[in-house]
Amino acid sequence: MTNARPNILWVSFEDCNPTYPCYGDPTVRTPHLDALAEEGCLWRKAYSTAPVCSPARSAVITGMYPISIGTHHHRTNSGNNYKSLACNYQAVVPHYVKCFTEYLRGAGYYCANNSKTDYQFDAPLTAWDDCSGSGHWRNRPDSDQPFFAVFNLGRTHESGMWEKGVLDEEFAISPENVEVPPYLPDTEKVRRSIARNYTNIAYNDARLGELLAQLDEDGLAENTVVFHWSDHGPSVRGKRWPYEAGIHVPMIVRGPINREPGTVCEDLVSTIDLAPTVLSLCGVTIPWHLQGQAFLGPRTVAPREYVYISRDRYDEMYDMTRACRDSHFKYIRHYHPEYPYLRWNSYRNRHPIMQELIRCQAEETLNEIQLQMFRESRPAEELFDVDADPHELANLADSPAYAEDLARLRSALDGWIEEVGDLGAIPEETMVRNMCPDGIQPQTRPPVMVPLGPSDFGEEILPTEDTRFQGPLRVQLQSPTQGASIAWSTALNETWNLYTGPISLAAGQTTLRVRAVRIGYQDSPIVEQQFVVMAEGPVAPRTGLPPRSPASHNPGTLLARYPSTESDIPSRAVPAAHPPAPRADPASDEPAGRTTASAITHPAHRQTTPAENP
């Protein structure tokens, strides 16, 4: 049976510019990408929000700009060569921010991710039905259930350009056939690395073909919207930089999207728009706080005038750059013009192209354009006519002929920074102390269960030692932690479900397990309660049931079983570079300092307050 609501399939290639034949680059054969474009719609001007993995992916999964929710530094949760940095923390985002897949799950979609996350926080238990290397729409328990399935194909990651990377000879591209951009030296090593990137694109294209064939085999192609996109661009002066090579990404969509096959769209789109676009196509309300905009479906809005990009600490070294682009010009603002272009990055320096640049610079064989990478300082502003200068080599910021364009783009960037509440102005150490007071990662408090039935009127909370209840019975779940979502399962089905409303329990015995989760927080302990629901019938008086324990009749007494504040819950320590600042309000579930974040500056806060999660 065909679902009325569309299925959604995402197939992303890591670290890819749109260097495909369907975008005008004939270097590599990509028959499946080409067919996808011929049968769907291709966007020529799609851009990432950040030119590196984890900030970019946090924007995709939340629909929020990294600088507005504290996910802008790469990375937060892994070590690097500067052990004194305030890293190895989970980004604690504003309480109303969720992985957008929760809205899909709440609307009845099966959500599977295979398998990269890299969100700057652990994927919440409530975000996915399956988040693993075996995640697939074929695993959903009901074949009629609509699905949202994500496949992240990693062969094109920049590490695949290294000499020791896996290389599939079946798809090998000759180094002689690649074009070397003018800002890189044209050497054999550089050519081999670029050729590897094309080879890996061909490999991923074949994997895309396998997934599309599986859709056909399952009879799902007609009702499935397929998205192809990438998180950001590859290579040196691409990845980690807001130049076109770092942020220009492919965007191809096929399926029931009300576009003519083979359409080429010149509208600007951003990866921040993916979440609201999927919700629009699926008929799910787009939450007020999402900062992207739908470009497909019934909630499509007018095309955007600008896309916005941020760059902050990447691995060992701090930086701060903001950029915006319209359909013609790119404006880049460097907050540290005193910094050299090449800040030290040990991971990037393992790249063979970077090593070749360093070698050639030492041997004084680089030309003037290639030496731009080694400048000891930067201009405070850069302006490029991207159509006339696609490699962004001629800075027009000081040209009187472009003063009007410079002023317009400056104003656009200033407006965006104010609107989203740029956390880049706050030192990371201060931000982490606000997120993790006393150097401790916060933890969601255990949820409570409230029985609702003929003899249970929502006046008591569980767990309790008593197990018998008069049917029919529903159980309402509540979390004392602001913004927490709740996951639940039973003894017979250990899959964690997203709680969206009271749970109806059938007559007989059921063991209910619940736990609360919130992005950036540790999950709560699991709370478990056994229910023996007696058959439905005339409503029995309260005395008709075995007496409950005194604690179960006194919510205040039962609450004493739970920690009174998050500080009473054993939590994971977070390294801090300096002594932690005291909390502003020890009784609050919200970490101190969030009033300086995007929650205050987002315009929606001046209009309404989000409803609490049930």
Layout of SSEs?
Blueprint: E1 7-13, H1 31-39, E2 41-47, H2 53-62, H3 66-69, H4 101-106, E3 110-114, E4 130-131, E5 147-153, H5 188-217, E6 224-230, H6 244-247, E7 248-249, E8 251-254, E9 263-270, H7 274-281, E10 307-311, E11 321-325, E12 329-334, H8 352-362, E13 381-385, H9 403-420, H10 428-435, E14 448-453, E15 456-457, E16 468-470, E17 473-478, E18 485-490, E19 497-498, E20 503-505, E21 508-517, E22 527-534, H11 550-553, H12 555-559, H13 598-601
Structural key phrases:
single chain, 614 residues, alpha/beta, Alkaline Phosphatase, subunit A, Immunoglobulin-like, 3 domains, 22 strands, 20% helix, 19% strand
Can you describe this structure in just a few lines?
This protein has 614 residues and is α/β, with parallel strands linked by helices. Helix content is 20%, strand content 19%. The model is unreliable at 541-614 (pLDDT under 50).
Describe the 3D structure:
The chain has 3 domains: 7-304, Alkaline Phosphatase, subunit A (3-Layer(aba) Sandwich); 311-431; 448-568, Sandwich (Immunoglobulin-like), CATH 2.60.40.10. Helices cover 20% and strands 19% of the residues. The chain is built from 13 helices and 22 strands. The protein has helices spanning 31-39, 53-62, 66-69, 101-106, 188-217, 244-247, 274-281, 352-362, 403-420, 428-435, 550-553, 555-559, 598-601, and strands at residues 7-13, 41-47, 110-114, 130-131, 147-153, 224-230, 248-249, 251-254, 263-270, 307-311, 321-325, 329-334, 381-385, 448-453, 456-457, 468-470, 473-478, 485-490, 497-498, 503-505, 508-517, 527-534. It is globular, with a radius of gyration of 26 Å.
